[in-house]
Amino acid sequence: MTSRLRLPSVFTRPLHLGRRAALYGALVLVALVFVSLIVSSGHWLRTRRIDLTADRLYTLSPGTLQIVDHLQRPLRLTLYFSEHATRDLPKLRSYEQRVRDMLQEIAVRSHGRVQLQVIDPVPYSDDEASAEGAGLTAANGGSNGERVFFGLAGGAPPGGADSEAAEGAAPEHALAIPFFDPSREPFLEYDIAKLLYELNQTSKPHIGVISSLPVEGNPVLGQQPWVVMQQLAQLFDVKTIDAGQLRQVGADIRVLLLIHPRHLSADALYAIDQYVLRGGHLVVFVDPDAELDDTPGDPSSGALPDHGSDLPRLFAAWGVRYDPRQVVLDRSHALTIELGGNNVSHPAMLWLDSQSLNRDDVATASLQRIDLSSAGHFDLAPDAGTRLIPLLQSSPDAEAVPVQRVLQASENPSLLLQDYQPGNTRYVFAARLRGTFPSAFPERAKRPGHLARSAPGDEVVLVADTDLLSDRLWVEPQTILGQTMMRPFANNGDFVGNLVDNLSGSSALLSIRGRSTSQRPFTRVEALRNVADQKFLQKEQELERELAETRQRLEELQPGKGGGHAGSVGTEQRSEIEQFRQRQLAINKELRDVQHQLNAEIDALGLRLKVINIVLVPVLVALLGLLYGWRRMRRNRRRL
């Protein structure tokens, strides 16, 4: 037999003590390594983030990333938000967190080129004065009547490498978003990226204007430019182009406005055609009847003067249908005008509300009203290779009529409502035409530099009215403190400005589209409500049918009908009414049961979510921890 040698405890105790000391030392080392990793990861992983939202709300689009990566100068963004004044406005505070998260993401991505600062402009402070000086707009309705600031100011940081240049150009490179309107949340990224893009520019973008209307005024006669052109001149370098001398549109023209084109030469049309195919941004304003066109008619013919405009050759090549002899009437959006001392409704002069504007387009999303007059409409040809995205539309209660009918009813617009026949069609007044554009001049293919097709995804904006540019449809003079100012009552100028502003940006800026909002609906709860609504609707229809049947039965039981006596008739009526009342009570009880079932299902759903979040997940985490600890303990015992 073999005997096992057992060492006295005096020899084994030092071994246990050494192992315990080594374990404690390893724990301390692990803790130090863990803390070091946590501290260092705050710097190393600062630009590494994971967006787990369903709609990728916090992931910057490629267009924004391109703008941020190509910033040529350091910028400072200052977010002004009234913390104290919004303590009772939870929705605005939630949206502020969404704005701040996006700004922080941009600042992180810029690698130091964008500095973000958040300021709470408390009342009567220097910060409040700074917010107002930066061009921010305060909203009323805060706590205790305080004003609410929620906007973004951008400019060159103080003390930078080019601070002197920044100081000299401060007015040009200090821009702001006056107020973050929650209704524009789908365009939040676009608005911020647009601000960065404009801050990065060193000069105003150039836009060209070709017009047969006196949009630039007449200095000789003392006529001022139209207000819409004055507004554009504040933001852009506007160049008037003579269509008679046009042979090529310069490469520096970011946007070309073609207003009321009439009798353009083939060379001018070819220059516009090639400008579009090179990726130029064109906005076309045509009109069946331009009311400010003073071209006289032919007195000998006795016909009414032709004040229409068209681009038949280019429209045909692009697959656009447009009839310069048709005007859209819409009695649902008819403007009320004063004529002969009376207020009359004019179905050819229209005011379009928000329901007629494209709420998903950045140019029209925030607008409330656009006024038109004798406007035409666009459509696509069946074989068109382009896509028409409406911006302004009529109501379904609209009709297209010959322009001559509108001209003949100029003294009595009510004549236009005679024999009115709406076609249940929403006519398109303005739209984005997007796709691949072929050249309208294939016979000039041998010319040097000729382009046969544009790149995919190019776009042209079409507007079937020129009168919306005129002052009378959207501004009126108002005297304030002895100075005459133009007060807008419609958003026509904002519409044109938004279009030019959007198109004058880079291709990266144009690629940024509207996104989802951060306010996620409870889809499961909404589905339950929809099911309940269907049940309610069925019960209501059942009740209405029974009510109609009972009324019909009561009419049949009236004296003199059916040959019954008065006493028996009264008894039958009372019995019928009593049965109906009992059935009505039963159906009402079923309606309450449906509502109770709906509430019970919603409460059960909420309870399940609470159990999962509060109980199940922590229990699973605890069980996994215990299982891991148990396995570690078994492994250690086996080693011993």
Automatic annotation (TrEMBL):
Which residue ranges run through the membrane? 21-45, 611-630
Top-level taxon in the UniProt lineage? Bacteria
Record keywords, A-Z: Membrane, Transmembrane, Transmembrane helix
Cross-referenced InterPro entries: ABC_transp_unknown, DUF7088
Pfam families membership: ABC_transp_aux, DUF7088
Domain DUF7088, chain residue ranges per copy: 55-153
For the ABC-type uncharacterised transport system domain, which residue ranges apply? 204-498
Which residues, if any, are the signal sequence? none
Q: What is this protein called?
A: Gldg family protein
* Keyword Transmembrane found: yes
**Presence of the UniProt keyword Cell inner membrane in the record:** no
